[in-house]
Amino acid sequence: MGKFVVKKTNTGETFRLVAGNGEVIGVSEVYSSHSGLTNGIESVRKNAVVAEVEDQTVEGYEQVKNPKFEIYTDKAGEFRFRLKAGNGETILASEGYSQKAGCKNGIESVRKNAPDAEVTDYE
User: Fold this and answer.
1) What is the tens place of the pLDDT at every residue in 21-65?
2) Do the Cβ atoms of 91 and 44 come closer than 8 Å?
3) 3-state secondary structure of 74
4) What's the CA gap between 22 and 36, in Å, rounded?
5) pLDDT value at residue 1
6) Whole-model pTM above 0.90?
7) Using CA atoms, how far apart are residues 72 and 9, in angstroms rounded to an integer?
8) What are residue 90's DSSP bridge partners?
9) Euclidean distance between CA atoms 83 and 103, whole angstroms
10) In terms of DSSP bridges, do strands 24-27 and 13-18 run parallel, antiparallel, or are they unpaired?
11) CA–CA distance from 57 to each of 52, 77, 92, 106, 118 (Å)?
12) What is the model's pLDDT at position 121?
């Protein structure tokens, strides 16, 4: 089972979604309040299961409504995804993947792990 690992930073709090095997699936923005962070976690839980995928690496890709997972390539040419909430805010972002298949597997891991992931205290 996955977990949300909450971490304090100099400017607030952030969380990582970690799969059962210990791999980090995605990270959040920094939240200035604990209630904002809690809302962010709940938003990931809720949106991960209903979000469609918009593959921006395909020419002429079809835009889909929020909430959605966006697959894109970064400046280094790696594949990444971000989960956007219904309001268009990015609520989770992935690491870089060398292959698109790995990126898609990351999205499936979010869908599988986020809904029932426990929240752990600060590292």
Assistant:
1) 999 999 999 999 999 999 999 999 999 999 999 999 999 999 999
2) yes
3) coil
4) 25
5) 84
6) yes
7) 27
8) 84
9) 12
10) antiparallel
11) 15, 10, 19, 16, 33
12) 77
Q: What is the CB-side half-sphere exposure of residue 14 using CA atoms within 13 A?
A: 12
CA distance 58 to 88: 21
Return the ∠ at Cα 49 (arms to 90 and 82), rounded to 5°.
25
Mean pLDDT of the chain: 95
Are 109 and 16 in contact by the 8 Å Cβ rule? The answer is no
Q: Is the pLDDT of residue 123 over 60?
A: no
Domain borders along the chain are 3-120
Contacts 24+ apart (CB under 8 A), 48-54: 48/83, 48/92, 48/110, 48/111, 48/114, 48/115, 49/111, 49/114, 49/115, 51/83, 51/84, 53/104, 53/107
Q: Which amino acid, 54?
A: E
Architecture in CATH of 3-120: Roll (2.30)
